[in-house]
Recover the amino acids of this structure.
């Protein structure tokens, strides 16, 4: 969960205060469900399979892919989010993982403020649905960090054609989840099917 600036956001997000309040109300509980773990395990497996040892998780929430990356399998896992309660939980949960670092920050600022870092894989979990120019957004991260792979997890209905056209598609996975969803999900126009159907793309730069 990150809070994009209006200039690049296709769909406006709530304020940071609202996000924190929703977190306290367990609005995102379905992202922690047993069903949802298959998404994060798929992301982690891609990192392991392609030998990616430095990972950036944009909009990290609870950084679930890290739980499927055994200690010693990676050198660095950096999660960035604007939800302070989620970051606090991450720091406590992964206190025994010295390779993990969790930073507060807007996803639009990441390529400009962290240029000293390098990553082999950048993971965007539920981010691109909110971005108008998806290729330009992804390209800014590629330019800043030179990753070998970009992994995108989003709604199955999100059009990612611009990415699959510009980058080499290595894997695509489809998911039809059955987790319970809060009736007050952000967009009242979504039905449960829309929220439960997901896709993961593994793209080589």
């Amino acid at each position: 969960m990150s809070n994009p600036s209006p200039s690049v956001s296709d769909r406006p997000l709530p304020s940071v205060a609202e996000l924190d309040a929703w977190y306290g109300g367990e609005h995102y509980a379905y992202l922690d469900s047993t069903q949802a773990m298959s998404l994060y395990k798929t992301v982690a497996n891609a990192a392991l399979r392609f030998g990616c040892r430095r990972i950036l998780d944009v909009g990290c929430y609870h950084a679930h892919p890290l739980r499927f990356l055994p200690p010693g399998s990676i050198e660095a896992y950096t999660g960035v989010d604007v939800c302070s309660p989620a970051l606090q939980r991450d720091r406590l949960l992964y206190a025994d993982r010295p390779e993990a670092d969790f930073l507060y920050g807007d996803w639009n600022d990441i390529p400009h403020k962290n240029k000293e870092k390098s990553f082999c894989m950048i993971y965007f979990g539920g981010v691109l649905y909110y971005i108008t120019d998806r290729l330009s957004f992804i390209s800014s991260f590629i330019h800043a960090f030179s990753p070998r792979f970009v992994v995108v997890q989003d709604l199955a209905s999100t059009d990612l054609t611009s990415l699959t056209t510009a980058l080499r598609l290595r894997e695509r996975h489809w998911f039809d989840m059955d987790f319970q969803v809060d009736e007050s999900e952000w967009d009242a126009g979504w039905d449960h099917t829309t929220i439960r159907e997901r896709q993961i793309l593994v793209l080589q730069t």
